[in-house]
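>> received
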Amino acid sequence: MPAGMDPVRAYLLQLGAAEHVVAGGLLGLVERWERIAQETAAGRVLDLDNWRNDLDTRQLLADALPHAPAPESARFHSRLAAADLELRRATQPLPACIWPAAVAKREGWQPRSNWWYFVRPTRLGPEFAAELEAWSERVEPDL
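>> returned
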């Protein structure tokens, strides 16, 4: 770990996360997830690719939290829980992971532990709705 770098930033750097993600650290990830939850509730998700990228923020949080010192992790717990709840209220379940099955299998994502990859916004624009319809025709349920 580079001298003076907190463990979460060091972990994100090791993962090869974008420079702005590393710089933002745990606080930046939590703030981004809160914005994603708010945008989802407001119906401002653009398309399938953006949705997948947004959900990757939550996965980064899940992966990075164990690297945070306990006091730092505890400081963000209630904010994360509130954002998760807001996102859950603005989504509905999918029959399979939003990423291709091969990716979900390689990563070990499961509906219970990685629930964010198994939901879609309730409010969809026409482009995203069409993409999801095409996606659903190619997917076999794994729930």
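>> The longest strand covers residues 91-93.
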